[in-house]
Amino acid sequence: MLSTTEENYLKALVHLSVEKGIKDAGTNELAGVLHLKPATVNVMLKKLREKKYVTYEKYGRITLTSAGRKMAIEIIRKHRLWETFLFDKLGFDWDEVHEVAEQLEHIQSKKLIDELDRFLGFPMVDPHGEIIPNAKGELKSVPKQLMSSVEEKKSYVITGVKNDETSFLKYLEKLGCRIGKSFRVAGIQSFDRSIEIEMEGKSTLITSEVAGQVYVRPRRVS
Amino acid sequence: MLSTTEENYLKALVHLSVEKGIKDAGTNELAGVLHLKPATVNVMLKKLREKKYVTYEKYGRITLTSAGRKMAIEIIRKHRLWETFLFDKLGFDWDEVHEVAEQLEHIQSKKLIDELDRFLGFPMVDPHGEIIPNAKGELKSVPKQLMSSVEEKKSYVITGVKNDETSFLKYLEKLGCRIGKSFRVAGIQSFDRSIEIEMEGKSTLITSEVAGQVYVRPRRVS
DNA sequence: ATTATAAGTTAGATAAGTCTAACATTCATA
DNA sequence: TATGAATGTTAGACTTATCTAACTTATAAT
Fold it and tell me: Do A197 and A180 share a domain, yes or no?
């Protein structure tokens, strides 16, 4: 059984790798996301290595082992199921769920989480649009949807791009469109199929050419 | 904000006082219910006294202050609401809820517990028949019911006695009837209104005279 | 009233997880 | 390729909560 602290380290490693797009991490990076000092992380890393949850060598990079990854995904599953519970059943706002789920994710009970999953109707995505791993730790892929097929007034999360030419990505960056960003469809122009989206309070126009190159998934809102 | 450990000490003090019927406790008693050593408890007691949650003097008895009692009741409220959630919504068995609720009761979020209360329909008793304190920390009294008015096949908890003569209490003790004990009504004889109850696997006959002196409340069962 | 036993206390040790300060290594680039 | 900045490591200290072993006080029974 892992301590809450150990669980947080493993989870942070997955989040780092997802955000950075690489599978390994450094002591300073990890310390940064955990809001701890590098010296502290260094000590814990030796412990996690001892327990076979990470591999790393002195002055080297940190990588999760498959056991470590499995544990981390289990914690992420719990986090996202609790977020869904808070949002769907208890009427929490989208931005309030994370903090409480950070605590709930460490409750130890297999039955609890499996029954919660069932109670919620085996949801595939959490209120932020993030995919919820299933009980086997698989990230079932949610059907791919292009931004060009969104509906007015609904909310989505950007999940990927079809085209990864630098110039295109730079343009997306300029528009503020990054993986993980959420937006709401304010309107769609019928004559050119351009889409007006609201993202972080700003309104942006997306042409149909761009929308056809960006993947999204629905996000639940209150 | 109290640590999980501190919360457990306060909660244990309330439970001890309820079970013993007295308001104070000793170091050894407290160590016993917490499964810790007296020396450990002694150290923590100084800390809780410092924080004004208990009063006690060297070699004296331990008493909760009103602040300490308030905190403890809040934790008990959380524990019982979570038990109700697990039982009513997630299909846990009566005997499975306690262990998980021990973990859930330490989650810190006022909104969480108030919304949970609402989601559950402001229940008055938990699956064990224990009264759930309300958000103000009041123990609303559940309507008194005599054992003589129970219904067949239903389950109840013994909550008190109308008569507290020693001889009567000794007799109850012999029957295994103590406050907090749960039983199921196996059958009621119509000609003498005697009640056959099942308690801890054993079947016992209760006369209508005895049943008229014992208070009970309904317990929920699966 | 004395004394054995039960209850309570103290001191010092241990483990987990954190910190600071000092030191070591790696890497980018001038 | 030498070197300064960024990154990583170590040692030692601190806090919380626990323990054991030794000691002190209270209590109950002869």
Answer: yes
